[in-house]
Design brief:
Blueprint: E1 21-28, H1 34-44, H2 50-58, H3 78-83, E2 90-96, E3 99-105, H4 113-120, E4 125-131, H5 138-149, E5 154-160, H6 169-182, E6 190-195, H7 219-225, E7 238-240, E8 243-245, H8 253-256, E9 260-264, E10 269-271, E11 275-279, E12 283-292, E13 295-296, E14 299-301, E15 305-310, E16 321-324, E17 330-341, E18 347-348, E19 352-357, E20 360-374, E21 379-382, E22 386-387, E23 392-405, E24 416-421, E25 427-433
């Protein structure tokens, strides 16, 4: 943080609530209507500027019958428009009186699986579109499995193009049954099925008169009301330190000796007077002050950004982590992880990379490739020689310095990492750490509890 609030503010002030933002992504096969659905959400919720609407109406991409091509709101690349497919991940932002939204439109092509993983990595909710005519296909299973691997807590199965099957309730139920055959094999607890037509707007923002047999919410109605407050891990305090805040303002005595550890809380709740441990040193101290952009507060929680002032001068720098002493993370140099490989050059055993985890970067080497996931069967194929671009698999990694982490299933922020190729600085893999086998056991604590 560039500015530290004055120390004289009252600590009895309640913490500033985190803005209710739903991050979601759309996925599915090619031509299922993902981009059109997002365009319809933006258009019908009146979230477009007048110049955007005018540009759509002037566009040469107007379809027969004078209908504007809503997909052009997200398919921004010329290559996307020429091919009629989504290649890059497009982000769009809109808001209703009830909630703010960040939408990632991700590609449907198999060769762009890596892009889908990128767009879904921070999502609270994933929308899997299914063409009502085609039903559940391999890409439907693939994207649902990826949503499960990424631990996205909420899933919407949007059965699109229902107008092309005569709004058949029987067809909708058949697709739902196809999904429910393999959903038990995936760890997704909140699944909602919605029949709709993205092109015409049925059940997207307003209820459709064509589905009297459907009594659930519209897509936007569900997005506005789905409960996401409990999606964050609030059990184990984690603060990866991004930088040490030292204003050193000689004209302000309150800021002259200020030393705060700044970052985004990655898990749990922190309160003044709470004992915390600084890793890797293992030093235990007490939280003296908690500062936010809006001033000092008595407590803060994930995913707020804060500066913590401790009672003692401890050795903490960028890459360190402050954690609660009641639930310590795992730690070590031997890591077990799932990974999505993103580079044309395949992942091979023995290759060295930079591993970026929270705010720290360490050198790492891939010691073993244990398996590759067959997305058609969702079965693991053991002992592959390499992982090609868009492959998902399990690997083992050795790092040059110990890493302090949680399993990805426990904490998506402290349980994820990326691999960066040395020399080119290209991001080549996105990883999800499996639960640690050992909890941190510091060699010393300078300040006992």
């Amino acid at each position: 943080m560039s500015v530290v609030a004055t120390h004289s503010a009252s600590h009895s002030r309640a913490p500033v609530p985190v803005v209710d933002i739903l991050r979601l992504n759309t996925c599915g096969s090619v031509d299922d209507g993902k981009s059109t659905l997002i365009g319809r959400l933006l258009y019908d919720s009146k979230s477009l500027m007048e110049d955007q609407i005018e540009a759509l109406e002037r566009s040469a991409d107007i379809t027969g019958g004078g209908q504007i091509n809503l997909a052009n709101l997200t398919d921004g690349l010329r290559a996307e428009r020429e091919q009629g497919i989504t290649i890059d991940v497009a982000y769009r932002y809109f808001a209703t009186p009830r909630r703010k939204f960040i939408v990632a439109d991700t590609p449907g092509h198999v060769q762009y699986t890596r892009n889908m993983v990128t767009g879904a990595s921070t999502a609270n909710l994933s929308i899997v579109l299914v063409d009502a005519r085609l039903g559940v296909i391999e890409q439907s299973r693939r994207h649902t499995a990826i949503a499960s691997l990424l631990r996205i807590p909420h899933l919407v199965v949007a059965v699109n193009k229902m107008d092309l099957v005569g709004w058949s309730e029987a067809r909708f139920n058949e697709i739902r049954e196809q999904f429910e055959e393999f959903l038990p094999r995936l760890d997704i607890k909140d699944v909602k099925f919605i029949p709709l037509s993205a092109l015409n707007g049925d059940n997207v923002v307003t209820p459709s008169p064509h589905t009297p047999w459907y009594v659930g919410p519209t897509l936007l109605g569900h997005l506005e009301t789905v409960h996401i407050a409990s999606d964050w891990n609030l059990n184990s305090f984690r603060l990866p330190v991004q930088w040490v805040n030292r204003p050193n303002n000689p004209t302000d005595a309150r800021l002259h000796d200020f030393r705060g550890f700044s970052g985004q809380i990655a898990g749990g709740i922190v309160r003044t007077g709470q004992k915390v441990m600084a890793l890797p040193g293992g030093v235990i101290s007490t939280v003296k002050e908690i500062h936010t952009l809006d001033g000092p507060v008595p407590e803060a929680f994930c995913p707020q950004s804060v500066s913590l002032v401790l009672e003692h001068d401890v050795d903490v720098s960028r890459g360190s982590m402050l954690v609660g002493v009641d639930a310590l993370p795992g730690g070590g140099t031997e890591l077990h992880a799932r990974i999505c490989w993103m580079h044309p050059r395949p992942l091979q055993r023995g290759k060295k990379y930079f591993l970026k985890h929270t705010s720290s970067t360490v050198q790492a080497v891939v010691t073993e490739i244990e398996s590759r996931l067959d997305m058609a069967t969702l079965e693991a194929q053991p002992n592959p020689t390499e992982l090609a671009v868009n492959d998902l698999g399990e690997i083992r990694i050795r790092t040059a310095k110990p890493l302090f982490y949680d399993g990805y299933a426990t904490n998506r922020l402290t349980g994820s990492f990326i691999l960066v190729e040395q020399g080119t600085n290209a991001t080549v893999g996105a990883g999800m750490l499996l639960p640690p086998t050992e909890v941190v056991r510091p060699e010393h604590t300078d300040y006992a509890i």
